[in-house]
Amino acid sequence: MSPPSVIEQHPSLTPTTPVALSYELFPPRTPRAAESLWTTIKELETTSPDYVSVTYGASGSNKGTAIELISRLQSETTLRPLAHLTCVGNTPHELALVIGELLDIGVRGILALRGDKPKDAQPSPAGALRYAQDLIDLIRRVEQRRSALLCAGKVAVGVAAYPSRHPESPSEEHDIEVLLAKQRSGADFAITQVFFHADQYAGLLHRARRAGVTIPIIPGVMPMTSVRRLNRLGELSGVAPSAHLMDQLASASGEAEQVRIGIQATVDLANAALDAGAPGIHLYTFNEHRHALDVLDRLDLPRPNRAAVRPAPELVS
User: Fold this and answer.
1) What is the largest CA-CA distance in the chain?
2) pLDDT of 266 above 70
3) 295: three-class secondary structure by DSSP
4) Catalytic sites, residue numbers
5) Alpha carbon 238 to its chain's center
6) Containing domain of residue 283, as a range?
């Protein structure tokens, strides 16, 4: 038997492993929404997150505003954008152009998603991609062709994971098989869809590791302060929020009490995920910073001690 290596003799290389922190944003639809979003961005920037994800509409419906937001994040803030990209209804050629455009503006992280099927039931063009796994393959092909341009930063590819069964999936086991296939295609990490019960993330992590999924699986957590939003997301995900929490929110004496109850429930959920082994927390902000920061204030996250440094403005001659 070979003697242990120097690294094996020191399994704990650092006293505390930092926990990743990230937020999700979506492109604004109106000038007023844009103004509010940039207030949120400036507030979130002060927490020095590892990245912020920017959503992408079904079939690229908001491609222009998404890329504009990402470009501004790159040039006007210290934030690192993770660009969502959906593939359903788009051809490899169309998507390769978008991937190239993202790389050209400095993006080095892409969340590869299938995307929602078009509601108008229009047939997809010939050769259109159908699954996130196909999009991962395409991203890696584009990356390979640009390898010399990316020597200072390869592309990190993320995917979605489901703490409870995907609405179109036959079983939770099938969801894990899909996640494993995404890993084999080159996914580097996963972010979960929203969940409402502490055991859902732990169960996902257990099933995934048992099946051979080794990539980080980051829990996506939303501030649970809005009854309307919780009901809507419950419908979309097929998982009902906690009946006890919904009763507490509904019977709150006012908005302040409702927010306090929702924030505490969110903190409890995030801490349960961290206790189960989560490597980070991804906060769905809905373009609002106040409740996301309230959650963060109550979480004791070990974070890297780095100061945000804003890029210097360009000099005008």
Assistant:
1) 68
2) yes
3) helix
4) 24
5) 19
6) 20-117+125-298
Count of positions (residues) in the chain:
317
**3-class SS of residue 84:** strand
* Amino acid 17: pLDDT: 81
Is 305 within a domain? no
Report CA 268 to chain centroid distance, whole Å: 20
Q: Could you say which DSSP state residue 304 is in? A: -
Sheet holding 220-221, edge to edge: 217-218, 189-192, 156-161, 109-113, 81-86, 51-54, 20-25, 280-284, 220-221
Q: pTM of the predicted model, to two decimals? A: 0.90
Q: CATH number, domain at 198?
A: 3.20.20.220
Q: Is residue 12 part of a domain?
A: no
pLDDT at 316: 45
Distances (CA, A) of 164 to 137, 189, 234, 253, 309: 26, 18, 11, 32, 39
Q: Is 122 helix (H, G, I), strand (E, B) or coil?
A: coil
- The answer to whether the beta carbons of residues 27 and 63 sit under 8 Å apart is no
pLDDT digits (tens, 9 = 90+) for 56-66: 976 556 788 99
pLDDT tens profile 32-42:
999 999 999 99
Q: What is the pLDDT of residues 18-27, one digit of tens each?
A: 999 999 999 9
Amino acid at 107: V
Q: Distances in Å between the alpha carbon of 214 and those of 19, 63, 186, 207?
A: 17, 32, 12, 11
- Domain membership flag for residue 316: no
